[in-house]
Automatic annotation (TrEMBL):
Keywords: Isomerase, Pyridoxal phosphate. One of its GO terms (molecular function) is alanine racemase activity. One of its GO terms (cellular component) is cytosol. Its EC number is 5.1.1.1. This is Alanine racemase. The gene is alr. It comes from Streptomyces alkaliterrae. SMART domains: Ala_racemase_C.
Length: 382
């Protein structure tokens, strides 16, 4: 973790506001009043830094943390987290035993996983906590409804030997960010049927859960015992069609900025960056921003990515290179070292991650998650 004070002149840095993370968790808990909140901290907390964000989310009342990979869950344990953690993306080989020993809830979508869990629990000498995932229509991971009874019966049989306890039954939406999409009610119906099958077989899960951020914010009938909130914890809206973050009381936690590495006058007709896809229309001032695609600035932002420099929105001039890109300041000036803000919460007039997403045809999730390991994360509100 980089702890340089926020006032030091940076090359490039991502300032992450942990007060915003805490406030977002509070806002989400208020929305999902009867359900517990799982803060999803996979992929380095969507690029924000897993351990500090997990800690902030816990402080704000997240009773669960969620990760994709077991390695992420084990990293939380290594950092001292002792609360409930679910890891859901497994491949043969686990590491099941390490996860069981670390008190991580594991997930099974099929018999192969259940078999490996039972074997690992025997090796570990303790029962595993297992959550069964049903595919209610996403078509990704999860047990098909046709195979569900077999998985449930096998889990119940393993439960009766003490090898494991089924702590959760869960699923994931395909289109929760499109209110009224017919798949939403269809998935909920399949999920309720799967719950009924599990209960009839004698399973008594602690937590039943389906909701991601979009569902946590807009679909109270999907909340059950727990909501799994990811992108909203970091203050992004799951979809611009649903609303902007402020509509849900959310605030973007990350600000990506850099200090200008060069500011210089150039004549008209000067080519800019690889391929000369931009040529200065007249004598002008070019500013060099020392952040590039190696830092996670999308190369697709060439010629279209927004950036606040010298008090105005500018557009990336020419190509984004691996380590740097250029903006044309036109008739304005700046000093070397002045701040260029690629995105942030928007309070200072800077673009947001959503603005970048719109500019390059992706989603805000990808803009923040792709910020690379070369960019120091600087935490405020620690
Ligand atoms: C990533 C993920 C989430 C969180 O989704 P958001 O849209 O970011 O809230 C929830 N559940 C699962 C299974 C996920 O993979």
């Amino acid at each position: 973790m980089n702890t340089a004070p926020p006032h030091l002149p940076p090359r490039v840095r991502a300032v992450v506001d942990l007060d915003a993370v805490r406030a977002n968790v509070h806002a989400l808990r208020a929305r999902a009043a009867v359900a517990e909140l799982m803060a999803v901290v996979k992929s380095d907390a969507y690029g924000h830094g897993m351990v500090p964000c997990a800690r902030a989310a816990r402080e704000a009342g997240a009773s669960w943390l969620g990760t994709a990979t077991p390695e992420e869950a084990l990293a939380l344990r290594a950092a001292g987290d002792t609360g409930r953690v679910l890891a859901w993306l497994w491949t043969p080989g686990g590491p099941w035993k390490q996860a069981i020993e670390a008190d991580v809830d594991v997930s099974a979508s099929g018999l192969w996983a259940l078999r490996e869990i039972v074997a690992a629990a025997a090796e570990a000498g303790r029962g595993a906590r297992v959550q069964l995932k049903v595919d209610t229509g996403l078509g990704r991971n999860g047990c098909q409804p046709a195979d569900w009874r077999e998985l449930v019966d096998a889990a119940r049989a393993a439960e009766s030997t003490g090898a494991l306890r089924v702590t959760g039954i869960w699923s994931h939406f395909a289109c929760a960010d499109e209110p009224g999409h017919p798949s939403i009610e269809a998935q909920l119906a399949v999920y309720r049927d799967a719950l009924a099958v599990a209960e009839a077989a004698g399973l008594r899960p602690e937590v039943r859960h389906m909701a991601n951020s979009a569902a946590a914010l807009t679909l109270p009938q999907s909340h059950f015992d727990l909501v799994r909130a990811g992108v909203s914890v970091y203050g992004l809206s799951p979809s611009p069609e649903l609303g902007v973050p402020a509509d849900f009381g959310l605030r973007p936690a990350m600000t990506l900025s850099a200090g200008l590495a060069s500011v210089k006058r150039v004549p008209g007709g000067h080519g800019v960056s690889y391929g000369h896809h931009y040529t200065t229309p007249g004598e002008t001032t070019l500013a060099l921003v020392p952040a590039g695609y190696a830092d996670g600035v999308p190369r697709h932002g060439s010629g279209c990515g927004p950036v606040l420099v010298a008090g105005k929105w500018r557009t990336v001039a020419g190509r984004v290179a691996m380590d740097q890109f250029v903006v044309d300041l036109g008739g304005d000036t700046a000093e070397v070292g002045d701040e260029a803000v690629l995105f942030g919460p928007g309070d200072r007039g800077e673009p947001t991650a959503e603005d970048w997403a719109r500019a390059i045809g992706t989603i805000g999730y990808e803009i923040v998650t792709r910020i690379g390991p070369r960019v120091p994360r600087v935490y405020v509100g620690v």
